[in-house]
Amino acid sequence: MPTNAVYLVAGLALLLAAVLPPVLTRYAVSAPMVLLVVGMAIGLAPLPDGLNLDPVDTRPVIQRVTEIAVLVALMGVGLALDRPFSFRDRSSWAAWSATWRLLAVAMPISIAAVALLGWSLGLSGAAALLLGAVLAPTDPVLAGDVQVSGPQVLDDADADVESAEEIDEEDEVRFALTSEAGLNDGLAFPFVYAGIFLAVKGPPSEWILRWAAWELVGKIVLGVAVGMVVGWGLAKVAFRAPRRALRLAEQGEPLLVLAALVTTYGLSEVVGGYGFLAVFACGMTLRTAERGHEYHATMHQVIENFERLLVLVVLLLLGTALTNGLLAPLDWRGVVIALLLVFVIRPLAGLLSLNGWRHRPDASSGMTRPEALATAFFGVRGVGSLYYLAYGAGLYAFPEERWLWATVALAIALSVFVHGALATPVMRRLEVRRERFTA
Q1: Among 109, 228, 274, 428, which is most buried by a count of CB atoms within 10 Å?
Q2: What domain count does the chain have?
Q3: Interatomic CA distance for residues 5 and 325, integer angstroms
Q4: Which CATH number fits the domain that encloses residue 23?
């Protein structure tokens, strides 16, 4: 492919990224679906000389690009959630009940099920556990069709803050999927480390206590703490600094959100915490300050535009790789794992986690059964899985690495097409049903 043709393809892809979201809102076709198909079509054409799409050879590049994409998405999710959370408020914990259930029940079940399935199909224990951890987190990058749209702000600056906090309370499905995606992308790290430790350090008896104390608990607490501290400090400056020149919210300076993202991630990684959790916690803490202020929408718009560009790059390259040899190592085992993950493992794990937490259709909290089914089913897999696989494979040379890349890529593509096709009609049907009961 000549260089001029590359520019042409890139330009058309950027145009697609700008046009697709508003055009496809009424149809059962998502922007990620179209971008992935475009990438697959590009992969069938002659590619520029020297373009290497082998995931093993380009692992460091994949890790950095997907890392940035996930970080940007996590900051966007933190800013988008309108429902507040307070450690000291019991009602706040209850309002996030669906999130805790999905994280504490659905995620471990998904990891264990995929790991056991992989092990039973012939993978080593370490590779199977890594695969379970890689495919467990739902994705904040590609799940836009089933997540909250963004921060809602008050038209009247003097309105009661509580009215802003009540926005989005009715759409329990979107809130649950958005908050789950924001948190479980960081919570997958301990299990990635468990797979690495199993490969490097031997039996769990040799490392399980240290893993539980530091990787499972210590780094999570540290990451959340760093995110909250940085978010609180930046919010104090942006909204309440004594000098007007420092009150960036009044000036509408949107670059604060990028400064917050990079600072939070860097500080958390330096002190040893999980940077993904720190960034999400920072976004949530920033959102807590002056919740009804329009500055939140301004910051979110910057993040959203940056995220769309990164999604464009990742999906085009993934699609190109899919038709350029990425799936060559795939065998029937990978197909079985991908199909069971999307159609059986995640839906059943999600339903088990939400079992018993459903109320009448006209209740003020909880989910109806159709809402619980939708929440359980729409566990979108995406960019986060690519990052975790690149990260884990960079720490230990798994003999099954190429097979792992093929299996994860297939699972992501399957998720993009299945969830992308069903998201619009299902979410529209739930909204109609909700309006009928609340009318």
Answers
A1: 274
A2: 1
A3: 22
A4: 1.20.1530.20
